[in-house]
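Database export, one record per block. Field names are fixed; values are copied verbatim from the stored entry.
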Amino acid sequence: MEYVFYGYPAAMIALILIAFFGCKASSRFKKLLIIMCLAANGVYIIWRFGFTLPSTGPLDTAMGVILLATECIGLFQLVIFYTLVWKEKKRSPVPLQDKDHWPTVDILIATYNEERHVLKKTVSGCLNLDYPKELVNVYLCDDGRRTDIQKLAEEFGVHYLTRESNEHAKAGNLNHAMDRSEGELIVTMDADMVPLPSFLQKTVGYFQDEKVAFVQTPQAFYNEDPYQYNLFSGTNIPNEQDFFMRRLQAGKDRFNAVMYVGSNTVFRRTALEEIGGFATGVITEDMATGMLLETKFEAVFVSEVLAVGLAPETWTDLLKQRDRWCRGNIQCGKKWNPLTLKGLSPMQRVLYFDGILFWFFGVFKMVYILTPILFLLCGIHSLDADVWSITAFWLPAFLSSYLSFKAVSDRQRSMSWSHIYDTSMAPHLALSALSEFIFKKRFDFKVTPKGVSTNRRKFRYTTAYPCAVLLGLTIAALGKTLYDYLFHQTFDIDVASYNLFWMLYNMAGLFLAMLVAFDRPRFRSSERFAINKSAAFRAAGSNGEHPCELVDVSDTGARIRLPYTAESNIYYGADAFVIETVGKVPVQVIWTTKSGDDIEIGLRFHGLDSDLYVKLIGYMFNEEYARRADREKRADTLSTVLRFFMKTEKSPDAFKRKFIREAFQGEGALQLSAPSDETESASHPITVKDISLSGCQIETNVPLENGTSVLVAIDGKLTVRRPALVCWIKKKRKRYTAGLKFLDEEASA
C-alpha cells in the first residue's frame, strides 16, 4: 500500500513532467504525453470502480454511481478528443488551373429577420469573390418576405427568392432555393457571414475528385463574443468556438466525419440531390445533412479561414444559440441514430455519437458542481476515500490532463477557460438536453440576433440566476464547513478537505459566469477593422489630396490620424476620403480630437452607391484585416477578474467631448421651440464662447433646463438654425451658461 501511495504517483508524475517538457524538443513527446494522460486517467477510473463507491446508504450509493458514470463518460470523451488531435490530416491545396473545368456556383444566403445592414455586407462579399462573375449567381433567400430586402437584392443585382410559408425553417428555405437554381456547386452562407475573395479559389478545386460531396471551411468571427467582450478579454482569449471550428474539425477530417456547420460550405449539387436535399424535421439541419452525405460520399475540411461573420453579441443571445444547437443535435440523434445509420464506418459512428453526447455537457458539469456542495451541506457522500488515496490516483490524472491539453491546444484553448465556458452554460444546457431527450418537447427555430447596438450596461439576471443560486449554495456550504470545523469535534477534516478544494475550483467558474452576464454597451452596430495604413483626404475649397494615416474603418465610417497644425480649418472641411483599391469615398467629419502632436478625425461615409460599397467591403474583408488573434495570452482567471473591475465604467459619459473646440466670441440667436410649432417662439440673443462640430457653449439671459430642445443660429458660423439639446447649465446671477449638443448631422464650416 505504501508503494501505491508514494511509488505510483511519484513515478507517474515524473514521467508526465518529462514528456511535457520534452514537447518543446520533439513532437514525439507530445504523443507520449497523451499516452501517459490516458493511462493515468484509466488507472484512476479502475481505482474508482474498485475502491471508492460508498455503501453507507441508498442516497450515497446513488450519488456515487451518478458521479462514477459521469467520470466514465468523461474518460470516453477524453479518448475521442486525443484521437482527434493525435495527428492532423494535412491536405495539400488543390487550386483550379486554366485548363480545368470551372463549375458554375450558386451562393444561397438564407435569411429570416436579419438586419439589412448585416445582409448588405454578406451580399457585397459574395460579389467580391475572385471567380469568373458569369459563373456565379447569388441568391438572397428571404423567409421574412421583406420589401426592403427585395430592394437590397435589386440594388446589388442579385437574385431574390421568397416563399409563401416557412415550412422546415432554414432547411426548407435552402431546398426551395435549390429547386430554383441550377449551378453545379452550391454554397451556403449565413446571413452574417462574409466570404473573403479567395473563398471559391481555395475550395472549388477539391471537387475534381468525384467522391467529394462538400468542402467545409471554419466559421470565424470578426467581432468579440460575450466572453471576450464582457470580460474585456478580446485580445487575451480566442473566440469560444475557434478550437472546435479549426482544431477538432481538422481531426475529424482524418475519418471522413467533418461536420457541416451550416455556413461557409460548398456542396456538389448532385450529391445533395441524391440524399433528397438539405435534411428536414430537425432544427439543426446542418449536422444531419453532413452526416447523411458522408454515408455515401467524402467531405473535405480546409483549415484556412475563408469567411468571417458575427458571433452572438449578448449573453442571452449566445445561450439561445447554444440551446438551439443542443436540441437540434439531440433531435438528429433520435431521427438518424449514428450508431445504426447505414453507410457510416465504425469511426464515423463513434465520432457522430460523441458529437451528440457532447451536448449533455451541462448535465455532466452540474453533477461535478453539485457533488461537493451536497456533501458539505447535506452530508451526502459520492465517494468513499481519504485525502491521501485521492491524491495518489487523482493528482496524476488531473496533472496529465492539464499538461497534455496545454501541449496539444497550442494556446487556442486552456482547461481553465473550458471550465469557465462549461460552468457558465451548464444550468441552461442541462435543462435543454434533458427536456429534449426525455420529454421530446418541440421548440420553434429562432434566429440568433446579429448586428446589435446598445448604449447601456445590462445585467442579464434572468439567465444569471441559476449560477447565482449555485454560487449562493457554495457560499452556504463554505459557511457550514467553517462552523462545523470550529464547533463540532466530530468534524472529519480528511474527507472535507478534497470536497472543499473541489468546490472552490467550481466557485471560480461560477464567479466568472456571473461577470459574463454583465453585457457591456455596444455603441456600434458595425465592427471596425484596424488598418494603420497610408491614405488621403480631400477638403472643400483646397487643392489636391492631404496625406493621413487610416487607423480603422467600417462600412459606415473611418478614423484617420495626421499631424496637428494651426491650419485646422482644413480638417473640418474634409468631404472625400481616398483609399487604395476603393477610390474616392464621400465623407462627413463627425468628430475630431487632439492626440499628442496629432489630430484624430472621425469620418462618416455617405452617398455610397452599390459599386463603391462593394469595393469598400472588398477592402475590409480580406485575409489581412478580417482575422482576429486565435491564441490565449494573459488569460488566467485573476487577470480576467482584474480587467473586468478596472475597465468597467458604471455609467459611461454619453456626452464625452471628443471634438476640438474653437474659441469663438460672437453673437447668435436661440429659439426655444421648433419652427414646426403652430406659434413660433421668439428668438433670444446669445453670446457664443466656443464651438465645435458637436456643439457649442453659450451665455444667455433666458432660463434653460437640462434636456430642453432648442434651435440655435450663430452669426458668421451657423446661418441656418440647427436643432440642439441642452446638456448642462451653470447660473451666475441672472446670466446662464449652457452647453449645447447639436442633434443633426451637418458639419459646421
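Remark 1: The chain has 20 helices and 24 strands.
Remark 2: Residues 467 and 647 are 23 Å apart (CA to CA).
End of record.
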